[in-house]
Amino acid sequence: MPEFDKRNTGAVFKAEKGDNPKRPDMTGNADLECPHCGAEFEKRIAAWKREAAKTGQPFLSMKFSEKQAPATDSAVISKSADDIPF
Question: Which of 8, 19, 64, 70 is 20 to 30 A from residue 81's alpha carbon, by CA?
Answer without folding.
Answer: 70
